[in-house]
Design a protein that fits this description.
The complex is a heterodimer of chains A (170) and B (130). By secondary structure, chain A is mostly helical. Chain A contains 7 helices and 1 strand, in the order αααβαααα. Chain B has 130 residues and is mainly α. The C terminus of chain B is likely disordered. Classes of the chains: A mainly alpha (170), B mainly alpha (130). At the A-B interface, helix 1, helix 2, strand 1, helix 4 and helix 5 of A face helix 1, strand 1 and helix 2 of B.
Amino acid sequence: MIHRPHGDGWSDRIAGLYDRLGGSLYRYALMILADPSGAADAVQQVFVAVLGRRGVELEFEERYLRRAVRNECYSALGRRRGDFVTGAEESLLEAVPASRDRPEERLALEQAIRELPAKQREVLHLKVYEGLTFQEIADQSGESINTVASRYRYAIEKLRAQLGARVSQG
Amino acid sequence: MDELEDLLQRYRPAGPPAELRDRITSAAERDVAKPFRAAESVQRWLPAAAAALIAVVFSMLANGVRRDVADQLGKGELPREAVVSELAASMGGGLLAREEAERLVQLDELRARAEPRGVGAGESEVNHRD
């Protein structure tokens, strides 16, 4: 009879890693893909890849995981090209707090966000929802700061155009 | 803050579905179990595999010894008793090895006696056809 090594705890560590980072990784993937099912698949793929690298110190994994999720999302977008289907029936956004949800307003914003290119959605997410600076986004994505800033500006302009009367120029 | 920024701040990307955590943690549990299942499987088959390997090695050894004995008997280089002794010694000596050596030499003698008859019959058949 073979006994498992004592104190393995690998699955507990993966669960802990997911509890700590899973939500933000999923949201990041969701904004790149604009597809809840695809985002879940991308995050799962990345965690499965982590499972294959047992022994790696998970405390150093956050940067790796974010980069891996980003790569997985853009690979998924590349595979989908030609028969692109988004989970349009699934929610992309949630109100903060939930009690302030206005479904009509939310759906209009979701629709406008879905129509942005993936890289603009990514910059919008990192800037608005993660509060990163353009420099931090540039470092994370490997793009120049000018490219990142331009993508953000284009995204805001398109959202404004799409949402029309709902929003006015500040 | 303009109205668009205000609108964006009232919402955020939706959180992951609850089942995603289950999918990932069950994948982790399967990953933990995998090497142990493999090791248990190896352990189960190890005695049978070892026995099969030993049988193959002994069979090859016996075939080799038998060929040597056949050569030596055929050439008449060694008396029968010397062949039996040498063969028993090559199998580790002792009573059991001696008995096995006797048996092998006996088998070989029987085969040696049978072979010329077979060849003769074949030749006869060939001659008959001619």
